[in-house]
Amino acid sequence: MNFLFWRRKEVAPMSPQFDTFPWICWYIWKARNDKLFNGKVVSPMDTLQHASLEAECWRKANEEEEVEEELVDSLTMEMETAPSWTSRIPTCQIDASWIANGSVNGLGWSFKDHMGSEFFGLRACRRTLSALHAEMEGLL
């Protein structure tokens, strides 16, 4: 593991086969969880193919695209002329966790005030009927 995650950069820094390794580990873990918790058996070949496909999609999605200079200049101009108050709008983000046979829900939130200070919170609540209900409870 030490070699594949850290030392391989010294040996083969640009080899795409090594970049697939974390994806393979992740999908082996997911297949293991599917077997333990859902009784679903995923073949090793399917796991490998799925991991390789996801790694390739990730690589392609993160490639830099050529952008015309005119477009970049116009976007830069728009950003420079944006009013400064837009960065001072308070924001609040929430999320909930819900498990079908669990006894509680989990709620988490993040609040950023107009001065840029951030506040975070967590809370456990009685179980709701569905994941949507849990999300809505976070709004209340």
Pairing-aware structural class of the strands and helices? alpha+beta
The biggest sheet amounts to: 3 strands, antiparallel
Number of strands: 3
- Helix fraction by DSSP (H/I, runs of at least 4): 40-55%
Our measurement of the CA-to-CA distance between the termini, rounded to an integer number of angstroms, reads 45 Å
State the low-pLDDT regions, or none. none
Strand content: 15-25%
Helix-strand string: HHHHHEEEH
What is the domain tally?
2
In round numbers, the mean pLDDT is 76
What Rg, in angstroms, do the CA atoms define? 22 Å
Helix count, DSSP H or I runs of 4 or more residues: 6
* Spatial arrangement of strands, main beta sheet: 1-2-3
Considering the chains and any ligands shown, give keywords for the structure.
alpha+beta, single chain, 140 residues, three-stranded antiparallel β-sheet
Structure description:
With 140 residues, this protein is α+β, with helices and mostly antiparallel strands. 51% of the residues lie in helices and 18% in strands. The chain is flat. The chain has two domains: 2-61, no CATH class; 89-139, no CATH class. A hairpin with a 5-residue loop joins strand 2 and strand 3. A three-stranded antiparallel beta sheet has the order 1-2-3, covered by helices on one side. The model has no long low-confidence stretch (mean pLDDT 76).
Brief sketch in words of this structure:
This protein has 140 residues and is an alpha+beta fold.
